[in-house]
Amino acid sequence: MRVLGIETSCDETGVAIYDTESGLLGHALFSQVDLHADYGGVVPELASRDHVRKLLPLVRQVMRKTDTRPADLDGIAYTAGPGLVGALMVGACAGRALAYGWGIPAVAIHHMEGHLLAPMLEENPPAFPFVALLVSGGHTQLVDVRGLGDYELMGESLDDAAGEAFDKAAKMLDLDYPGGPRLAALAEKGDPSRFTFPRPMTDRPGLDFSFSGLKTYTLTTVREHALADGLPDEQTCADIAAAFQEAVVDTLVIKCRRAIRASGHKTLVIAGGVSANKLLRERLETVLAKDGARVYYPRHEFCTDNGAMIAYAGCLRLQAGEHADLKIEVRPRWPMTEL
Ligand code: ATP
Ligand code: MG
Ligand code: FE
Fold this sequence. Notes:
Helices cover about 40% and strands about 20% of the residues. By secondary structure, it is of the alpha/beta class. A 5-stranded mixed beta sheet has the order 3-2-1-4-5, with helices on both faces. The structure holds adenosine-5'-triphosphate (ATP), magnesium ion and fe (iii) ion.
C-alpha cells in the first residue's frame, strides 16, 4: 500500500509518500519560520495563505522525486486536527479533492497520532504497548498506548505546553522565534548549577504538568540580573537558559519514570518538537535504563511537524479499513482519546 501524506496543521507544509513494503519513499517540507519571525509567533492567516501557495508544488515535487503516478497511490492522508482551522482546511481540501479526482480513498489523521507514530519510521521501531510522552509546541501529554487508536491519557499540562514554555523563555532571553532549539543551544554554554529553577508539580503524586510558573520564574531571574539594555550579560543568559532547560527536562523525566512504573510497560516513546532536545533524550535513557525500560524517538527532522508521520499514520488507518467520506471536516480541537 502506498499513501501520500499531507501536513498543514500549523506553520510547516509537509508532504511525503510511504509504502508499506519499501518504507518511506520520499518527503519534502517547507517551513514558514521566516514568514512569521517578525511577529514572534505564527500568524494564522499568513500560515493558511502560504500553505495554499506551497502545498501543490510540494506534492508534485514528491510525486516526481519518488517516481509515483496517481495510479500508484492507494490513498491520501491529511491532518484534520488539532491545529489552526484555516491551515488545516488547506490540507484537508487539497487531500480530499485529490483523492476524489484520482479515485482513491482519503483518510483524516489526528496530528498528535502522527507525532506519536513517528518513531515507527525508524530502523528499530518500538512495539505496542508503550507510554508516549508527547512534547510539542501545543501539547505535553503522557499517553498509555495499547495499540493503534487505543489511547488513554495519563496526564497532561494544565497550562503551557513544554515547547511553548521553551519558546517563551527564549523570547525573554531575546532569542529569535522559534526559540526552543536556540535556547537549548545557548544552554550548552551555561552553568546549570548557578540558578535552581522549580520542578513544578513533582512534589505531589500524579502525572499532570504545569509550566507557566517556570515562565514567571525565568522572567523574574532575567529582570533581577538585567543590565541597562534590559538583558543580563551573555554568560548569565546562558546560565539562565541552562537552569531553565534543566528544570523542564528534570520535570519531564520524573513524570515519565512515574508513568512507566504506573503502566508496567517497558517502552517509552517521545515525540513532538521537544523530543529533539538532546538533554531530554540523554536523561530519559539513563534514568529509565535503571527500570529496565527503553526510550524511542524519531530522527531529528521528524520530531517537529512533517508529512512522513501523516503518510505513515494514513497507511495504518487505511489498512485498518478506515477512510473519510466526501464531507471535508477539520477539528481545530480534537482530544486524541476520542480516536
Ligand atoms: P503541536 O504538535 O502540539 O500541534 P507544533 O506542531 O507547533 O504543536 P512541533 O512542531 O511538534 O509543535 O514542535 C515545535 C516545538 O518544539 C516548538 O515549541 C520548539 O521550540 C520546540 N523545540 C524544537 N526543538 C527543540 C529543542 N531542541 N529543545 C527544546 N524545544 C524544541
Ligand atoms: Mg511547527
Ligand atoms: Fe506538531
